[in-house]
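Morning!

As promised:
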Amino acid sequence: MTAAGPIQFRIDRRSGVATYWQIVQQTRQALRLGLLQPGDKLPTAREVVEATAINPNTVLKAYRELEREGLVEARRGLGTFVRASLGTSPAADSPYLAGLEDWVARAHEGGLDREDMAALFDSVLNKHFPQETP
Amino acid sequence: MTDSAAALEATGLSMSYSRRKEAVLVDCSFRLPQGRICALAGPNGAGKSTLLRLAAGLLRPSSGTLTVLGQTPAEARSRIAYVAQSKPLPPHLSVTDTLRHGAELNRPSGRWDQQAAERIAYGDGGLKPAEKIRSLSGGQRTRIALALAFGKRAELMLLDEPMADLDPLARRQLTGALMSAATEHGTTIVMSSHVIAELEGSCDFLLLVAGGRLRLGGDIEEVMAAHTLLTGTSGTSVLDTGGHTVIDQRPAGRGCTALVRPHGEPAGDWLAERPTQEEVVLAHLRNTEAPPLLTETATPRSLQRAQRARSQENAA
């Protein structure tokens, strides 16, 4: 554990996204951004609930999910620690980015606006990766 | 204390304040397992406060039974903390005196935790030790009442509208402290409120009362999973909802939406969505004719046994 402070979860109760899922997503995001690295300790359930006023079981559920994904591990009596890092966002020269740029350009020519494209992209994502039920 | 004892278990619980008046609670049966954080929701006058007073042993039921941590409410008194809406505290005492008083009253149980009480009373934006109770605002009185509850290290906290007088910062802070106590000691917490959004996120168990009757009871996720919000897109204003239990139905544009408890897949042209907690609760408050829902975890043991016996009889 470094001298840095623990990561803070920001819970948006009006977002419609299940609270435990917000914790999972924010932890993944912190891994992607390198805010959390292997060996770092996640805040304890008690620390999280004290800061966010959410239910302790919600935190435990999120941590179990992260554990199931192999991203963290619980060490008895010590806490929950990061096991793996997540790849950072694809770099600017990634073939996926180029492909997406190309697609956006063609869709724009075809008359789609930003919202149409976002909706289309979301629907394809949802088709291939069904959202966890909130 | 046995592990299987529920924090609260009510069977056929009814309460009338006088014979001439209408009953405040009618035939309520439910079970709240220990370690849960329970939202006791319902409109004003639904019977929430009466239920909490019964659990605190301040009232006796007209009929039915209520056990608290496996004991009678009177026996369980030293193990529970009850924070009333009115917070009756001696007005002439200072904050320090009040805490000292709490320490003395709880000496026989040997459980008083002065540090925990002081953390709540004097923590961020907290009270001044010498301040007199009579000069405290409503929110500050809530703080001292909660400080006493924490100091008592109660296994079960019964909190009647605890957040009503608190500013957003104090609300966040005290809810955080409650959740933290629940994490550390496995404290069971029952919080009543008529503002449903207030309880969302913190609670994992729901008891919804309206008109003196229990409408919904159970693990919040289970209760929510039992409901679906259907939007009919086929241009019908009244939906053929098949075998589903319709809780609430209303027109939406050319179609209509219905909150149902589905039995099997919804038939026809439906957009099925998961409703929010608020939608489920409000639908049950609008339609008081809807059959109540009690999940298995929220069903008293005695009723479970009766149900099993009945189903066995039916099978035989």
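Chain B has a mean pLDDT of 87.

Hope this helps with the figure draft.
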